[in-house]
Amino acid sequence: MTAGFIDPLLVDPTRLSILSLLSTARWAEFAFVRDTVGLSDSALSKQVTKLIDCHYVKVRRGYVGKRGRTWINLAPAGRTALESHVGTLQEIINQAREAGEQAQEADEAQASDAD
Questions:
Q1: Rounded to an integer, what is the distance from CA 96 to the centroid of its chain?
Q2: pTM for the structure as a whole
Q3: What is the DSSP letter of 8?
């Protein structure tokens, strides 16, 4: 059907949302990602760990004043994976639209032949 690649890791809507959000920022604070994606701290931490293991994100820890902070960044491999995954999904959508249009044209041609 398509020559693209559906990334099994990004089939999960949560991880896809995280990478999509990170694609718009250089570094995003953990709390911002958590709140935007709508996860608990532990759920986001588990997802980020999976993404780190695949080299899709990088994490930086530091302090703002005396408070510890964590920032997350989309790594080059993550950007490539996201772009490929989304591109493949777009190809699938376009192919389905074309097939639907062709089927509709065929139906219309059959209907006018029957008249």
A1: 20
A2: 0.83
A3: G
